[in-house]
Amino acid sequence: MNPTLGASYFRLHLLRRFGIATILLFVSSCSILPATENLEIYQLPAAESASHSSGDSLPWTLRLATPYSSYITDSPRVLALRQGNQLSSYKGIRWSDPAPVLLRNRLVAAFRADGRFNSVSNGNSSNNLATDLELGGDLSAFQVEYTNDGPQATIRFYATLSQPLRNRIVAARSFEISEPVQSRGTSEIITAFGLSADRLAAEIIDWTVQQGMVLQTGAKE
Hints:
- The chain has a single domain (40-219), classed as Rossmann fold (3-Layer(aba) Sandwich).
- It is built from three helices and nine strands; from the N terminus they run αβββββαββββα.
- The protein is an alpha/beta fold and 221 residues long.
- InterPro entries: ABC_trans_aux.
């Protein structure tokens, strides 16, 4: 056989074998699917109180921005902080939205139920509209923390209140709420988060209205 033809045939044979092996590897990799995890999806429980406040009202618009958070907090996983600063998630349960969105929506609903602002919107739907005040901040914790007193549904939120039209922050404050988890059951965990979110919303509303009244008084002087 011609040496040149023999070398060409050998290379062609190797290419064919390599091509077949590549195709088989691709097909086999496509057939390996991740195991399906059975998940239960939860929302925060409905707020305990939804009555309008009888306090002073503000003829202003308020926008709630989605809080900033870390990579792991900005997820739908139900997180737990155990001893040794070990952060993990509960198997088989998830929130209906990432924690920052979940908290923002709860705050929007609470402010609307309170009724002391002229209108309340969220950042996702009103980015292009002018607003008098914007409430944002950093969500540093939305998790169950295991302490010597037992598990606690804990929310830590650093709130900032700003006037977008003036491009300035007018007030800021740290909030921390913990609610004991009564037992190890999933429903008790979700209930504790709902109570924590309700208490946090009540404190943030009172603080925001107070700051708004100060601004309103200063604007009239």
